[in-house]
Amino acid sequence: MNAERRTQNAELRKRFTRTFLTSVFCLLPSAFLFGQPAPPQYEVYAVRYAVIPDLPVAGLIADADKSRKLDIAMMVWLVRGGGHTILFDSGFYRPQFFKSWKVTEFVRPDEAVARLGVNPEEVTDVILSHAHWDHADGADLFPKAQVWIQKDEYGYYTGEAWQAGGKHGGIDPDDVQMLVRINLDGRLHLVNGDQEILPGVHVYTGGRHTWQSQYLSASTRAGTVVLASDNMYLYENLEKHAPIAQTFDRDSNLRAQDRMKGLAARPQLIIPGHDPAVLTRFPKVAEGVVRID
Ligand SMILES: [Zn+2]
């Protein structure tokens, strides 16, 4: 009886040791090597929803020749992966903007992203680079989305900007009310500076295009892509190391552009906010839509 129990115990010990060693040698290295789950590889698309013809380049690039004009692309960017369908910026659609601007080739932003097979209800997140009309106005076209904006951007444009001495150029009162409604609805997220807001999706401040504008980076199969939005209007800003024409702080804007170079896997993956060349430098996947990577 005792001998039998001893054999059983020895067998159990052996089995335990085997299991333990297997755990140590198989699980520990994987914990060390893969302790942080790899971020999803996102697909990133630029979606043009309109063109504003003949815009003076001096309005985009500080100190540019005043006679130069450009048909600028109005874009939103779709970032898809890891169970999220993210829009970086949301374009515009309210009627007042068509009275004050000449707009051609307009497709409402929710219809423009439908060209990638995305229904408005499927957009999980709208990340706003800043509160200007042509980037934030369309946020309420995506009724289920969580909306992300810098805390200081939201605070300033829903408050102090409208007091004496405040600056609210390019901010539409309807959009301010819309953002407040989204906040009351429980869908607004206030981002405090540089932050990873979803796995592999970071936002960074620094351009001071508006009170606290932000740009975005996402991990893709080609490495990190940077979506600059208006913190870098055109490729020319980066190529000439020229600040954007509209910023509260030129030095801060240049520092932001320099930082983008350090973040992006390669300089070609820094995507400017309004450059029509984006639509020709990347492969076309639908009308007005290119895949960045
Ligand atoms: Zn802007």
Notes on the protein architecture:
The termini are far apart. This protein has helices at residues 2-34, 96-100, 109-114, 133-136, 151-157, 173-184, 235-240, 250-263, 278-281, and strands spanning 43-56, 69-81, 84-88, 125-127, 146-150, 188-191, 195-198, 201-205, 214-220, 223-229, 270-272, 284-286, 289-291. The protein is of the alpha/beta class and 293 residues long. The structure holds zinc ion (ZN). Zinc ion is lined by residues 130, 132, 135, 170, 209, 230.
In a nutshell, what does this entry contain?
The protein is of the alpha/beta class. The chain is 31% helix and 26% strand. It has an eight-stranded mixed sheet with strand order 6-5-4-3-2-1-13-12. It has a five-stranded mixed sheet with strand order 7-8-9-10-11, covered by helices on one side.
